[in-house]
Amino acid sequence: MERVVVTIGGMSCQRCVQTVTSALTALPGVFQVDVALEAGEASIAYDPELANAGQFRDAIEAAGFDSP
Description:
- This protein is of the alpha+beta class.
- It has one domain (2-62): 2-Layer Sandwich (Alpha-Beta Plaits).
- It is 32% helix and 28% strand.
- The chain has helices at 14-25, 53-62, and strands spanning 2-7, 30-36, 41-46.
- It has a three-stranded antiparallel β-sheet, covered by helices on one side.
- Strand 2 and strand 3 (41-46) form a beta hairpin.
- The model has no long low-confidence stretch (mean pLDDT 96).
């Protein structure tokens, strides 16, 4: 298992946090997601054989937020 922190832009409320959390936890290989609204980032614990940073970025953007 590995852990990565990704930046998320456009979050403004707890509903945004829930949306991003749901989008990321739905990905295969993701075990834990902790989204920090004020910091604008998510810490993701995942299996690198099943998930990767590109998938995280795609999921965040599909949920309507920015991920540089």
